Amino acid sequence: MEDEVKLMKGNEAIAHAAIRYGADGYFGYPITPQSEIMETLMDEKPWETTGMVVLQAESEVSAINMVYGGAACGKRVMTSSSSPGISLKQEGISYMAGAELPALIVNVMRGGPGLGTIQPSQADYFQTVKGGGHGDYRLITLAPASVQEMADHVALGFDLAFKYNNPAMILADGVIGQMMEKVILPEQKPRKTEEEIRKEQPWATLGKTHGRKPNIITSLELDPAVMEQNNIRFQQKYNQIEENEVIYEELLCDDAEYLIVAFGSTARISQTTVELARKEGIKVGLFRPITLWPFPKKKLKAYSEKVKGILTVELNAGQMVEDVKLAVECKIPVNFYGRLGGIVPTPDEVLDELKKLL
Amino acid sequence: MAKIKGTVVVDTERCKGCDLCVVACPTDVLELAKEVNSKGYNYARMKNPDECIGCANCGYVCPDGCITIYKVKI
Amino acid sequence: MNTLEIIKPENLVYGKPRLMNDNPMHYCPGCSHGVIHKLIAEVIEEMGMEEQTIGIAPVGCAVFAYNYLDIDWQEAAHGRAPALATAVKRLNPDKMVFTYQGDGDLAAIGTAETIHACNRGENIVIVFVNNAIYGMTGGQMAPTTLLGMSTATCPHGRNVELNGYPLKISDLLAQLDGTCLVTRQAVHTAAAVKKAKKMLRKAFENSMSHKGTSIVEFVSTCASGWKMSPDQSNKWMVENMFPKYPLGDLKDI
Predict the structure, then answer these.
(1) Domain count, chain A
(2) Where would a tag sit more exposed on chain B, N or C end, judged by fewer CB atoms within 10 A?
(3) Model's pTM, two decimal places?
């Protein structure tokens, strides 16, 4: 069968991909620029086809806690929001990390701080990969740069979340959420049956069957010795994720003397910059982290032996650049270029910045 | 006329000596012991076992589920 | 007939419910939580629903409720239990789902989650323990603390200018179209316990017949927080709490 190519927004692709993945539930609260996710789901009425539950909650706080409840049943559940709403969800995300619950959270970033702007931004990088909520935890973070990746990262995010019993986030920005592009949606998968969940997620709270101990989903442990062990176990898991799950894309990096490092929409812009620079004879490549956590630090460290300098481009005041600097251990110059407040740079602007590095 | 005779068994280790069973008993069967359990609580016990009618009031109000009640018609 | 002759399985009248395990409960002596736990265990047991029940524990004194009843449990963040329960029930309509919440959890930090779960008519049971004080954190003011009542954060007594009024949240919930049963009970006497159990059973049955949200408020004591003996606490509750929070059914349809 030939793949059906469709034209849609990134936000819509997330919704369709979730239904086709066999997601069990979506719980959300409207906020620009991602409201099309829930709107599309409500329009599609998946409860009549796959049985997926879609519910508009009274707040982002409630929505993320609905996700906690659903995830604790071993169900494939998700939520989506944009920056201010994601701030509200941090409580639930920390609790899910602490209770080791898998779930998918989508953040279609807008400019902050505060109510900020509805225009695109990448200013939630720190919030997402360095913590966000309280406690020592990590969030698996995927950064799509196309509508196709918005669709693909739904399955990738759920799969990683369930592989490691940890929440995963799709960290997109308003550009990727709002732009229309062609996309090939995945095949419809069936939702997991209760029997399958009981087998694959034996910790799920679906009712204590005869003979087994009660399943208790909690992040609470008052004995510091046990709590330390819990934390050590989490850290071992995070190390394992860093070891096994790094994803990135390289464009014209083989012969590159300089690298642009960018994710999401700025990677798209920088791709054009690379093309413009190459025409001028500048040997530059684009390195695009797809997982922001785990961050591709080993690969970037390897590049520090090969290239003369790096320009990091972001829609913020300089966040991922810190991880790039850490990765290359200050062996080569790492410059930064960013626009703030919802302004998106042009490829020429980025090219001018690149030339400052030469 | 048949007489009802009851008795209570207190899980003295579980008992926290809250006294609510003593208050709830309509026939003044229970008291708190002068002795304490391993946690230091004066546990409940029967002082007038012959008066127990097995009404289970003590059990209903016991917050810790440490009272078991039996009764027979004699 | 001596005592030992009476103690036989066939003569058993009352005992700890099977679903309540042998873990010693962390509650203070005389705490109402224990009786309410027992009632929930008895109802689930009598309905034969232990393999189908999921409880949502709160933050507050009952945070460890999951250690005492042998069913599946989820521990919620403070106030969020109705949100968890909403998802659990919607994703598993055939399961029996309840939250267990104190006054701070349900009527302060979780007011939004509570009201909206009730307003959507989620087919869950909300067990609400109202002892007018924050027990776990050391006796601070609750939304339901009575006027004039002193707590750690209103040591000179709750006063309207500073603290506002005691919140009769069950009355408010009874106004919502999504609720089918809102009842206020207590567990200070054997008679009260029996009556409360009947209403609790009705609440759980409502949830299984998808009638809407059922709320069972337990006007309760906190002997440690109130700084009284358990018996004195019961008397104080009858004299002071019941006039503000009168027992009975606020809604039963």
Answers:
(1) 2
(2) N
(3) 0.97
